[in-house]
Amino acid sequence: MSVIERKTKETDIKAELNVYGSSKAEIDSGIGFFDHMLTALTVHGGFDLKLKCDGDLYVDGHHTVEDCGIVLGKALAEALGDKSGIVRFGSAYVPMDEALSFCAVDISGRPYLVFDAEFTDDRTGTFDNCLTEEFFRAFAFNAGITLHVKNVYGRNDHHKIESMFKAVAYALKTAVRKNSDGSVVSTKGTL
């Protein structure tokens, strides 16, 4: 279990993350669709996540979404420690109706994001669709993971974004699984 708190002039966030949980989500970011996506990430990843964010939504959702990514990334990094004992790699394709998305992750200590998706509309509910990439970038860089996320195809932006979050969830669920001998999976012997 890791607990991360972050308070700035733009956001005040507290997150509690258990990567070996039972899919319990208690999310309140102030952005309904984003809460829905973080709940999907939690439930399909098999995590427990309690997250509360008070952000400057009178400006827009950018600070809230990006800062939640920062906090969740730090929480994942703290929860995994030196990364010994995990499988390290994971990937998943996830369909949602007409949409299909893919994710590959390496819990490597080397932060990187490859994001490939285009959206038809500017928003889904009160969520700015362009913030999907901002969330995953903040998450990947603060978790110290290499993250590739691609929407292969789809027409409905809600479905495209949700299939991406679920693909990330299933890839992470695989990557954080315990390995057989508790070692660090690396030719260097460390990550």
TrEMBL record:
EC number of this enzyme: 4.2.1.19
Major place of residence: cytoplasm
Biological-process GO terms, alphabetical: L-histidine biosynthetic process
GO molecular function, one term: imidazoleglycerol-phosphate dehydratase activity
InterPro entries: IGPD_sf (IPR038494), ImidazoleglycerolP_deHydtase (IPR000807), ImidazoleglycerP_deHydtase_CS (IPR020565), Ribosomal_Su5_D2-typ_SF (IPR020568)
CDD domains in the cross-refs: IGPD
Keyword Amino-acid biosynthesis: yes
Pfam hit, one: IGPD
Catalytic activity: D-erythro-1-(imidazol-4-yl)glycerol 3-phosphate = 3-(imidazol-4-yl)-2-oxopropyl phosphate + H2O
UniProt pathway annotation: Amino-acid biosynthesis; L-histidine biosynthesis; L-histidine from 5-phospho-alpha-D-ribose 1-diphosphate: step 6/9
Domain of life of the source: Bacteria
Subcellular location(s) per record: Cytoplasm
A GO cellular-component term linked to this record: cytoplasm
Keywords: Amino-acid biosynthesis, Cytoplasm, Histidine biosynthesis, Lyase
Keyword Lyase found: yes
UniProt record similarity statement: Belongs to the imidazoleglycerol-phosphate dehydratase family.
UniProt-listed NCBIfam families: PRK00951.2-1 (NF002111), PRK00951.2-4 (NF002114)
The protein's name in its UniProt record: Imidazoleglycerol-phosphate dehydratase
